[in-house]
Design a protein that fits this description.
Strand content: 25-35%
Structural class: alpha+beta
Oligomer: single chain
Number of helices: 4
Shape: globular
Radius of gyration: 16 Å
Helix content: 25-40%
Number of strands: 8
Strand order of the largest sheet: 1-4-6-2
Length: 150
């Protein structure tokens, strides 16, 4: 399992190819990439993402290990960016590998739901007008996360 938290842009295709090349015996690889979108007003200047180095990686490693155990994944990869990101830039990527597609899909969904609701990142939308608003958690994300409760 690999966890990366970085400010730099990444190449989704290159990351998928690198991950795929290391998967021996996997019958399925699932890839999800998140993109910064301007949903609120249409005038997003940047999305500013903050985190606590060390704490963030530890939290992501813990949930990654849980996904591997829970869904019998052969491997997982979590990449999340921080800093100032413009609309349409890649913000995160989750890759999962498993012997069977259902487990790879469920593992990826589990990780994405966690990243959206519980991962220790704080997001602020800064508009072209200079307004800055913290992005609040959404009820729909909490509902999605609850489906994984045991």
């Amino acid at each position: 399992m690999e966890i990366r938290v970085q400010p730099e842009r990444f190449d989704m295709g290159a990351e998928l190819n690198r991950f795929s090349a290391a998967q021996d015996g996997a019958g399925a690889i699932v890839s999800f990439s998140g993109i910064v979108r301007d949903v609120a007003s249409g005038d997003l200047s940047v999305m500013e993402i903050e985190h606590y180095p060390g704490m963030t990686e530890k939290a992501l490693a813990k949930i990654g290990a849980e996904a591997i155990a829970r869904f019998s994944l052969s491997d997982a990869f979590i990449l999340h960016r921080f800093g100032k990101l413009a609309a349409n830039e890649p913000i995160m990527m989750v890759l999962t590998a498993a012997r069977h597609r259902d487990m790879a899909f469920q593992g990826a969904e589990f990780l994405m739901d966690y990243l959206k609701s519980r991962a220790p990142f704080w997001k602020k939308e800064i508009t072209t007008k200079g307004d800055a608003d913290w992005v609040d958690a959404k009820d729909v994300d909490e509902v999605a996360l609850k489906r994984w409760s045991t």
